[in-house]
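Lab intake sheet, docking and co-folding queue.

SAMPLE TYPE: protein with bound small molecule
LIGAND NAME: zinc ion
LIGAND FORMAT: SMILES
REQUESTED OUTPUT: full 3D complex as structure tokens
PRIORITY: normal
SUBMITTED BY: R.K., bench team

The fields below were copied directly from the construct record.
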Amino acid sequence: MTSNPAHHNPSRIALTLGALALGALACSPLHTQTRPTPPRAIIVLDPAHGGPDLGSQLTDDLQEKNVTLALSARLRTTLTASGFTVLTTRDDDPTALLPTDQRASVANHAHALACIVLHATTSGSGIHLATSTLPPAQDADTPAVIPWDTAQAHYLPQSLLLANQLGVTLINAKLPTLLGRTSVRPIDNLTCPALTLEVAPLPSPDPNSADDPIPASDPGYQQRIAQSVATALTAFRSHPEPGPGPASPAKATPKAPRKPTTPTTKPANPTPAQNGAAR
Ligand SMILES: [Zn+2]
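RESULT FIELD (auto-filled):
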């Protein structure tokens, strides 16, 4: 990933911004009968772990980093087919992992409709959805520059809406789902409606069944999740926004973006700064 920034698909972002500009042009002049094609909404997927960070050891020969990557690929295919543009923080198993802050920067530059951090586990069952533990920001409007460490606070109303939408859709698809709060990084740094989606084994719908639960790595299970995510995001896309969001993205980068090879350190200055614009 670190060796190939094309994974961030800047060309796709450029394409979308181009479509936006074209849309603005097409609206003003006269007698345009054909409506401009709306820009495809961007979804950022962050398949957690990778490279030397294995994540959980799910079975003797299965590591979490590979399950999140497989789920990310499946989501990309399904969401693209549903009309979304998908950006991911990695598309392979890199030798050096992108620092967490940089994963957040990738997401924040995308002005995404939604950012989803993917995890997998052997504990619990079904799907665990979580939004940030930060208290919601009190400001009515999102300031132009917001602190990096609490950036997500300004997007919490939308994140909760997204989590509820996805939770309902998963449950309708007979996938047991828990909604919670967590501040697993980089969720607090994200300036988009954001949640973590952790896949746990799926128990048989028959409580008397002696069948083993379906593991998080199962392709059929992952496809059901991907389809539910696509359905939920399609509904979410048509929701009126309850607060500040991708239409007026804030800048949440109190430090210059780091090179992927630089070790992650705590930001020296967590207060707002003017550099590192999120565009
Ligand atoms: Zn994990």
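REVIEWER NOTE: The pocket of zinc ion is lined by residues 48-49, 55, 64, 119 (CB under 6 Å).
SIGN-OFF: pending second check by T.M.
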